[in-house]
Specification:
single chain, six-stranded mixed sheet, disordered N terminus
Length: 436
Amino acid sequence: MGATELVIKCLLTHSSSSGSFEVQFPAEDVVSQEGREKDPGKKLDWSAPTVMEDHIVCSTEVPAGNKASFREASLSGHESHVPSSEVLEAIENVIQDVLKSLAQKKAPVLTLANRSDWRNIEFKDSVGLQMIPHCTTKQIRSDCPRSASKFALMLKILSMIYKMVQSNTYATKRDIYYSDTLLFGSQSVVDNIINDISCMLKIPRRSLHILSTTKGFVAGNLSYTEEDGTKVNCTCSATAVTVPSNVQGIKNLISHAKFMLIVEKDATFQRLLDDDFCNKLSPCIMITGRGVPDLNTRLLVRKLWDSFQIPIFTLMDADPHGVEIMCIYKYGSVSMSFEAHHLTVPSIKWLGLLPSDLERLNIRKDVLIPFTKQDQNKLASIQKRPYIACQPMWKKELEIMAASKLKAEIQVLTSLSSDYLSRVYLPNKLQFGGWL
């Protein structure tokens, strides 16, 4: 029996003054195997080709300090792969701390950074939102009824990760959840624990041999080779290519694109494909996360930026939700701030749909949508964020949105003409520098 399994068995029978807890694990773990900021200026040069949270815990906020369970070094975008030996060692260190507590007849605890606490986040223009080195932490205690279950589940998933790294096999988050749905309860529980483990170990999810389920699409002037040698050509047609599940593993990227366009919604993305937008104006790469982007879509946007250093624009709905999604691509999210260095692209520009465009284009009021209370709260939250202070033009657009209390989807442009987006709006914006 391995050390991790031994600890799990010990902890399942551990008792404390708060009572005992028991979580039944299956006898076998069955997991599926699956094989720099640059301003592009206000006009684009079309000539030169370019080549190449869970709150149910018993927590005590304390400074993280130099705790042995935390690795101080933050991973940069070019250091995102961690050797298997280091992953195994990091997990073993956690288990050793648990064993030490048991040997001293103390209730073991796991110490995690407060990923959702804005006090642990700092903003830098060149990176976006990132976790501060000495952040406050919370303790997942084995002797607290409210957190004992999560403590045991974290050790369970650590055990599964350890086995996958040892055997060089991979699993998606869904694979882990479906290995025992009764045990985990919901997919969100698994997702949250995996992010906590990644943050605790300071190791990216891919190096933990956990793959994200991809929902994003990419199309346009781009070709690359996947890790297994498969050659992919993202020619712009009526269909798009699914974002690869192992973005770090793709190589031999080639593109003559002059810019990249991130599209919020799949429907708009498909319409632009149907209109052959990627080739009509100038060669480009289009990406959509189909709403809030998954990890692989964000990783791909960052990889393409690192590879080609071409302007990146966003096309979002003129509403708080669209602005939120754009900010995730550009500055990152609070919950994933510990991986900001290889997820964010602060050079991203806001191309549209701008709140000021609605008045400029004389969009009829009857095709706009009134704000809900949720929209008002979301917008107020965004306006208070640290990066808005560094974007005076963004601030002005958000004030226009707040004053009007109206929002608009990109499809509102069809009220002008059916192909207004691809024939007029985007070409004019890109030619005359209509971005922020």
